[in-house]
Amino acid sequence: MIADAIKNKTKAVIPYITAGLPGMDATGEIIRSLRAAGAAAIEIGLPFSDPMADGPVLQKASHLALKNGFTLEGLMEHLGDWTTSIDIPLIVMSYINPLMRRGIGETLSRFRDRGVQGVIIPDLPSDAREIHALCRDIGIDLIRLVAPTTTLQRQEEVISQCSGFVYAVSVKGVTGVRQCLPGEVARQVQGIKAMTDLPVCIGFGISTAEQVNDMLAFADGVIVGSHLMERIMGDPNPVIAAHDTLRELIGPGIESIR
Amino acid sequence: MNGYFGEYGGQYVPETLIPALRGLEDAAVRAFDDDGFQGEFSSYLQDYVGRPSPLTHAKRLSAHHGIEVWLKREDLNHTGSHKINNALGQILLARRMGKPRIIAETGAGQHGVATATACALFGMECVVYMGSEDIRRQHMNVERMRLLGAEVVPVTTGTATLKDATSEAIRDWVTNVDTTYYLLGSAVGPHPYPTLVRRFQAVIGEEARGQIIEKTGKLPDAVIACVGGGSNAIGIFSRFIDDPVELIGVEAYGDGNTSHGASINFGIPGVLHGACSHLLQDENGQVLDTHSIAAGLDYPGVGPEHSHLATTGRARYGLVRDAQALEAFRLLNRLEGIAPALESAHAIGYLEQYAHRHQGRTVIVNLSGRGDKDIHTVLEEGL
Known about the structure:
Chain A is an alpha/beta fold.
C-alpha cells in the first residue's frame, strides 16, 4: 500500500528516476540502491518524446533513455524483477500517449500484474472520471496532482478521484531544481489535508536536505526528481550516485527506516 | 462550447493549466456573445488586415487543368497569410482578460509574424518560440518578428521544429500562467483552442461562400486547403460543412515514403499538446519525426476537428509530396503571377490529382499565404 508506506516513514522521501538510464539493468540496480538508502517508495518515469511538463534535466534524461533504446515492451520484461527486489511500492509516471498506444486499460493491467502499485499521469484529461474508475477496477492507485493554481472546487474533484497520495505541485512551472520555494506551499498542503486522509507529498523543485526538512514539517512526503537525475547523469557510477544523493537528502542523524 | 469533436479533442494538460483554460473558455464565450467584441474584431479585419480578401478566378491555371479554379486570396492579407485573422482575434481576447504578456509558437514563422504584428499594434510584450531548424529555413520571418519588437527564442530540443516549439511554449505558459496569454496559432491544442481558432478563421469561409455564389451563381463542387494543424482549412470548411460541397484537406507527404507530415493518412489516435487527434507515432507511443519542405506542415499531429471530419467521412484528406508542391509553386508563379507559400502550394499541387477525375468541376483553393518567405528554399531546390 502506497499510503501506508508513506505514513509509516519518519522521513518519507520518494525518489524519481527515468527508466532506462543509463540502461535497463542499471535502472534495476539504482532502484535497489535507492531502497537501501531509505526511499519510502520509488517513482520511475517512462521516457516520452515530448515531455511538455518537464524542465531541461528530465527532458534530457527522457531523450537519452529513448536514444539508449528504451521501449515499453522492454520495460515490461524488467518490471516484475524490479518490484520483487524491493519491499517498498513502485510507482510509474508516464505521459498518457504511450499508455494509450495499446489501450490504457491493458497497459495499466500489465503494470499491476508486475507489481506496480500506482501511476502518475501529468497530462491526464481534465475530466478523469473514466480513468479513475478504470484504475480502481484494475487495482492500481491513480495519484493526482494538485497545483498552486487549482481552485478549491477543482481540488475537491481531483481529490475525490485520487488514491495512494495527493501530489502537491510546489510551484507554477515544469519540473526542475529551484533556488527557493514559495511559502504558500504550507497553506496549500494544509488545505488539501483538510479535505482528505490521504498522505500529501510535495514535488517539483526540491534539491536540498534543508528543503526536505522544511517540507516534511507539514507534508507527509517529498518527491525528488531533477536533482537526483542530474547527479545520476553526471556520475560515472550512477548506482552509487543515486544512493549517496538520497542519503544526503534524507539527512544524517535520523534513522530513516522504522 | 463542447471540448470534443466526436472522440477527438479534450484537455490533456498539466493540472496547473486547468484554471487558465477554464478562464479562457469563459472569456471566449462572453466575447462571442458580445456585439461590441464582434464589431471590434470586424473593424480590425477590414481596416487593418484589408478584408474581405478577394476570390480570384485563376483562368490560366483553370485552362491548364481543365477545371474552374478560384483562389481565396489570404496571401493578400496584411502580414501575408491567414494567420493574422486568428492573431488579432486572440489579442483582443487577451486584452479583455488583462494579460500583458503574449507567447506563441511558430513553424513557418507566419503565425509568429502575425502575433508579433498584433502585439506591436497594441503595445504588448511578445515572445515567440521557434525551432532552430525552422529559424534557419525561414530566416526572413525571424528578422521580421525582431523588427516588430518580438523576442524569438530558438528551440533546439527534439527535431527543433514546430512540435518542439509548441512544447516549449506550453512550458513557458505553465511557468508564467498568471501574466501570460498563450496565443496558439493553429486549430490544435487543448479545448477551447480548436474552437476558438476556428471561430476567428471562419471569416475565410464566410467570405468565400458569398463571393463564389456572387461570381458563379452557385456553390463550388469542392473546397481544397492544406492541413498542417489545419487552421486555414477549418476556417474555409466551416461555412461549407452543411452544404453539398466536397471538402478536401491536403496533407504534406514529404518524400512520399516514410518521411512526411500526413497525420490523418498515416497516424493513429493519440495525445500530443493537450488534445486527442491523429498522431504520427511508433508502436511504443513515441511521437515520430516528421518532414515537409513546408515548415508550417511539418507537424506530427492535426487539429481534432479534422480527425473527426475524416472519421465521419465529411472531409477527405489527400497527399502531396515535396516535389509536387515545388512544381505547383513554380506553376502558379508562371501561370497566374502569384507566389504561394509552400504550405498553400500543397493545396495547389493537389489540383492535378483532382482534375484527373473531375474535369469541368469548380473548386475553391484556399491560398492561405504568400511565398516570399520560401523563395530561398525554392532556389535551393533549383528553379
